[in-house]
Amino acid sequence: SVPLIFDCDTGIDDSLALVYLLAHPAADLRAVLSTGGNVPTDVVCGNNLAWLQLCGRDDIEVCLGADAPLEAPLMTTEDTHGPLGIGYAQLPVPTSTKSSRDAADAWIDLTMDNPGEMVGLVTGPLTNLALAIRRDPLLPTRLRRLVIMGGVFHHGGNTTPTSEWNIAVDPEAAKEVFAAFGTDGAPRPIICPLDLTESIRMTPDHLGRLAALAESSPVEQPGPDDEPGTRSVADNTIVRHLVDAIRFYFEFHEAQSEGYIAHMHDPFAAAVALDPSITQTRPACVDVETTGSLTRGTTVADERGFWGRPVNAGIATTTDADLFFDDLIERVAAFARERRGGP
Ligand code: BDR
Ligand code: CA
């Protein structure tokens, strides 16, 4: 199994990534760390607690992260993810509470306790990980793998003409994290950039398949009042909340002239964290522009050794999106069905 630290800014696609990780039998989620990004950090933390409780996994630790980027003021994007970061979903208010340790300490402690075993997955700004590495510079050498959704290399940005959201929110943090890799003993982080994740487009058809599969397949041990095939889509609570969240994301993408679809940035990165063989990667030395008046937050990849610095990343380039969606839909549907839509 894959022991995971998931650091996110939940977030509609972060939400689906989280449920996918809960649904995947290979994933052993040890902590969910909250970082400010799509919405403020405390709202992200509340969303993480709420999804875990809804899915019957409030035993998993949820940590609050830094409330602002290293140097810049926090920017959020409620237009993209809804006022609370989860689109139209209205999750029950969680009764569980956050951990007493902060997100950076969780990165440090979990990798200390399990050297060489933990897989890190970051689908938000890199603030927490940068703070953890400042406190503990050897942290990268204790990771088994690190997967980051962020950056853009040959494609237009989604935050400025040349920058991607997760990097643009905290460019200093991203710069520090990339600088901490490329040394002996540290794994090469896999970057899932916008170039690739924007080609992973969820459609209403995918969501319809998820809902149908979650509802119509027989449950393993149906109770007397819970006959398979008798529940409507809306009766499966987990699927209903996911559909309500993603509907907002479809509308946002449509308003951006992308069509009635949604880019599955973070669920794809989650799939790579569990099985890196689903993508091909290109080795590069990656750095982040922090001072350019037009280009702050831009990721730059040196693939030819111009800088004379070591390779510090593998940039994900291609994947089979259909296979990815089949896996996502089947696993999340099976999980929702098994849970009968609630804890
Ligand atoms: C990234 O930005 C966020 O809004 C999404 O959750 C994703 O992690 C895509 O640029
Ligand atoms: Ca995210």
From TrEMBL:
Example of a GO cellular component annotation carried by this entry: cytosol
Keyword Hydrolase listed: yes
Signal peptide: none
Gene3D superfamilies noted in UniProt: Ribonucleoside hydrolase-like
Domain of life: Bacteria
Region (Disordered), start-end ranges: 215-234
Keyword Hydrolase: yes
InterPro entries: Inosine/uridine_hydrolase_dom (IPR001910), IUNH (IPR023186), Ribo_hydro-like (IPR036452)
Gene Ontology biological-process entries: purine nucleoside catabolic process
Residues covered by the Inosine/uridine-preferring nucleoside hydrolase domain: 4-326
GO molecular function terms listed in the Swiss-Prot or TrEMBL record: purine nucleosidase activity
Keywords: Glycosidase, Hydrolase
Stated name of the protein: Inosine-uridine nucleoside N-ribohydrolase
